[in-house]
Every structure is written in C-alpha cells, then in structure tokens.
Amino acid sequence: MIVVVDSSAGSQSYVEDCEICCRPMQISTEVHGDVLSSIEVDRAD
Fold first, then answer.
1. pLDDT score, position 45
2. Which residues, in sequence order, are CB contacts of 24 under 8 Å at separation 6+?
3. Domain that holds residue 16
4. Are residues 26 and 6 in contact, defined by beta-carbon separation less than 8 angstroms?
5. Is residue 3 assigned to a domain?
6. For every one of its 45 residues, what pLDDT tens digit does the chain have, with 9 covering 90 and above?
7. Rounded distance between C-alpha atoms, residue 18 and residue 21, angstroms
8. Where are the strands (E) in the chain, listed by range?
9. What total of structural domains would you count in the chain?
C-alpha cells in the first residue's frame, strides 16, 4: 500500500479508507520546515 503525503500542506491529520481492506485509518503527519519528520498510521474504527 502506498500513501502519498503533500508535505507542503504542513502537519496534518485525516482519515482515509485502506485500499486493501476498506477499513478507515487515521493518518497523521508532522512537518518541520520542508521536511516530513514523521508519519503515523492507526486504525480509525
């Protein structure tokens, strides 16, 4: 599975359905300057 992250949008958190199992997942990204410093993916149900 591939998740595309737009780091120009800054730090963000959103829910997206898994392409494989269709279950919701919480995606959280942390951006410092122009660098994506972390990404976390957890179940959202």
1. 80
2. 15, 16, 17, 18, 43, 44, 45
3. 9-43
4. no
5. no
6. 787 888 788 899 999 999 899 999 999 999 988 888 999 999 998
7. 6
8. 12-17, 24-32, 35-43
9. 1
